[in-house]
Design a protein that fits this description.
The structure holds two protein chains of two kinds. Chain A is mainly alpha-helical. Helix content of chain A is 73%, strand content 3%. In chain A, strands 1-4 form a two-stranded antiparallel ribbon. A two-stranded antiparallel sheet of chain A has the order 2-3. In chain A, helix 2 runs antiparallel to helix 11. Chain B has a domain of 194 residues. The chains are: A mainly alpha, B mainly alpha. Chains A and B meet through helix 5, helix 10 and helix 12 of A and helix 4, helix 9 and helix 11 of B.
Amino acid sequence: MTVARVAALLLALIVLPFVATPYALHVAIVVLFNVTYTAALYAVLRMGYLSLGHAGFIALGAYTCVILSVRLGVSPWLGIPAGGLVAGLFAWGLGALTLRLRGIYFALAIFAFGEIVTAFFRAFDWFGGPAGIPGVPRPAFLGTPLASHFAFYWPVLVVAVLGIAILYRLQYTRFGAALLTLKTAESERLAESVGIPAARYKTANFVVSCVITGTMGTLHAQYLLFVNPQVFGSTMSTDLLIYAMVGGLAGFWGPILGAGLLTALGEQLFSVGYWKTLVYAAILMVVIMVLPGGLADLPRRLRAHFGAPR
Amino acid sequence: MTPLLLAQGLAIGLVNGALYILTALGLTLIYGILHIVNFAHGEIYMLGAMAVYVFFVVLQWPLGAALAAIVLLAALLGLAIERGVFRNLRGQWMQLLVASVGISLIIQSLSWIAFGAQEKNVPSVLPGVVALAGVRVPIERLAAAGVALVLVAALYWVVYRTRTGLAMRAIEEDEETARMLGVNADRVAAVAVALGFILAGLGGAFVAPIYSLNPGMGLEAILMSFIIIIIGGLGSITGTVLAGLAIGVLQSIGALALGAEAAHVLVFAAMIAVLILRPQGLLGRG
């Protein structure tokens, strides 16, 4: 994307709350959540690792913030970085242990991790048990809580733009380029032989992804006004993966496009979860089978097919 | 914890483990050939259980006819999915894995729409309890576990005593060489997926009278199966059998001592420990 396009998009996002209906603004907020999670997930997918339990880090951020504010009376503002920090610490420990596993082993380990996180919160009443914790406070600005969609939109937008900007910038550093060399065990050995500290890079990248995911998770819980073990369970993890795959894994903007389109579609058309899941999964299968590059690859494919000769 | 309670936990654990093995074995079989972990496997298990409800309870077919129909339908579904999806994506592990997640979500959401959220119950086929020295096991579970072990023996026979089994092991060993020697890898993969689906469908069918059924029950089954094949070693049949029994026992004794949710966390912890200390699993080859 060119600088002009990014600027136009940002401008539109700033003008949006002044013109949108509360419902449209609700959709926009949910889109910002999912777009940020998916961009963070893509950072991990990009180095060849399938994080099948990324929602576990949303849950860690969300629960940290909720426990701090509901159980311990800490300011919801402080809960936001605290949630990111806790998600990052877990990612650091888990990444150090599991990122040396490859392919399916890592995917299953993270899948199990996501399940452990929700099983843990479900097991203890102090963490809300199966019903979760209601009455989550929102942060206040100049003494008034950010109760309306209009007010809450702004912190969500700030975290989304900052998170995505960090992820985008990282991708084009030497660090981000080195990560691409870690996709297979052979190329990783090659990278290490020229002095790239592969294990440290992989863990660092995983931690960045999860800090951003967890930070956004805190706002997500504040927006919903509750947390429970189901919202950030395996369905959320697979949804994020579907967004990324449908958008296309070839570039930075594909997953963001997929998350934006599918979230907006899901919020608009379906009230019952099963239909939404069915439509998402059907779109996923069509994309995997006939459009391997994802939606982001569609313009190029169309050009190639109907082709203006170049 | 008294010795009697421990023995009771051990007995129930072994019986449950035998039932877990049925679903897990299909997964390990498919992994050995296609090198994917089939996320849709839990849904086949769920469909097997639901099919018992539909054929046996609603349509009042004899039990044998219901089971035969399940075997046939599971095999056909396996062949269709292998041909339509897996074969086109071979060699791309990430796409394969995500595609199996997609298939799982499609089957699951269709089932929610078709069957609704109302729990289904299948009446007991063999009521009663066996008691031995104070340890009590429902006859139904014991019978299901017994049939499961017979099926495991049958799978061993297929894999180690038939030409198709030989071809499977050849592909697992070295696919390129096996292909060069004339092994039809596509056909073997189709057979493996069909066999795996039959085992999963029967695994679901056998638990139908034991649990309340709903379209979400596949998730629990697939989770246990993943844990079992990781601990046993992806692709290892014997490893899967041993790990299945061990996890069944760990879970039932853990539940008696610490409660069901905590037993869950315990089982996951065992899997993470294996992944860290011995990623190839107890009996897997690197």
